From TrEMBL:
The protein's name in its UniProt record: ABC-type amino acid transport substrate-binding protein
Family membership noted in the UniProt record: Belongs to the bacterial solute-binding protein 3 family.
Organism annotation: Pseudoalteromonas denitrificans DSM 6059
Origin superkingdom: Bacteria
C-alpha cells in the first residue's frame, strides 16, 4: 500500500515539477542594440549580460526573445515578459513598472564628413534634416525643441544610418558605441566618410528594465531586481566594458 501511494506521489510530482521550474525563468523581449544587446553574442551583449547576471543573483534564469522594438512594446504591455533599454516617458509610466536606472546613455551626432555643420547651439540645428529613432528620448531640452526642427524618423538606428549615408538627412542622433558597432558591421566601406560630434545640450538618459502593470509578478520581481542592482552599484561592480 505504501509503495502504491509513493508511486502516485511521484507521478503527481512529475506533473507539478515543470510548473515549479517555469516560475524560475524570466522572459526578456528585446531588439538588437549592439553592443549593449546583441543576439549574435553568447552573452547577448554588454548590458544584457548585466541584466542576466542580476536575475541570476536572485535565482532566476533568463530566456531572450528577439523582435523589433515596436513589437517588443506590444509584447511587454500585453504579455508576461520583461524588457530593458527603455527610456521613461509619461505615457509609458501609465502602463509599465520601471526599475531603478540601470545605467545612462548619451547620444551624439553622426554626420558625413563632407557636410559642413554648426552645432554649438540648439537653434543652429533648424537648418538641418535630423534623423531620430522612433521611441527614443534625447533629453528634455532637445525633446522640447523638436517642434522647431526638421526631423526624419526611422524605426531603427540602422535605418537612420542608411538614410544619412543616402543623403536623406544631414545628421543622425545616435549613441556613439551603437554607431561604431553598426558602422563596423554593416557599413564598413563608409566608416571613413562619417564622423561623430558631441554637444553639451544632449543630456544623459537613464535606461530601465520594464514590465507591464498587468503582469501579476511584475512588481515582486522588479523589487528583487532592484535589490540586486543596488548591491552591484554599491560594490562598483556594474561594468559595461
Amino acid at each position: 500500500m505504501f509503495r502504491y501511494l509513493f508511486v502516485i506521489f511521484l507521478i503527481l510530482f512529475s506533473f507539478l515539477l515543470p510548473k515549479v521550474v517555469a516560475k524560475t525563468e524570466i522572459t526578456l523581449s528585446v531588439d538588437n542594440y549592439p553592443p549593449y544587446i546583441d543576439g549574435r553574442q553568447s552573452n547577448k551583449g554588454k548590458l544584457a549580460k548585466i541584466v542576466t547576471d542580476i536575475f541570476k543573483l536572485q535565482g532566476y534564469n533568463v530566456k531572450y526573445k528577439f523582435m523589433s522594438w515596436p513589437e517588443t512594446e506590444i509584447a511587454i504591455t500585453d504579455g508576461n515578459s520583461f524588457s530593458f533599454m527603455w527610456y521613461k516617458s509619461e505615457k509609458r509610466t501609465k502602463n509599465w513598472i520601471f526599475s531603478d536606472p540601470i545605467t545612462s546613455l548619451k547620444a551624439s551626432f553622426l554626420s558625413r564628413k563632407t557636410t559642413k555643420l554648426k552645432l554649438e547651439r540648439l537653434d543652429q540645428l533648424r537648418r538641418y534634416a535630423i534623423g531620430i529613432t522612433e521611441g527614443y528620448s534625447y533629453g528634455d531640452h532637445f525633446d522640447a525643441y523638436k517642434p522647431q526642427l526638421k526631423l526624419v524618423q526611422s524605426i531603427s538606428d540602422y535605418e537612420g544610418i542608411k538614410k544619412l549615408l543616402a543623403g536623406e538627412t544631414d545628421l543622425l542622433l545616435i549613441e556613439p558605441f551603437v554607431a561604431e558597432s553598426l558602422l563596423k558591421d554593416w557599413f564598413s566601406d563608409e566608416v571613413k566618410d562619417t564622423k561623430l560630434s558631441n554637444v553639451n545640450y544632449l543630456s544623459n538618459q537613464p535606461i530601465y528594465l520594464v514590465c507591464s502593470l498587468q503582469y501579476a509578478s511584475c512588481a515582486h520581481l522588479m523589487q528583487k531586481f532592484n535589490f540586486a542592482l543596488r548591491k552591484l552599484k554599491a560594490k562598483n561592480a556594474l561594468n559595461l566594458e
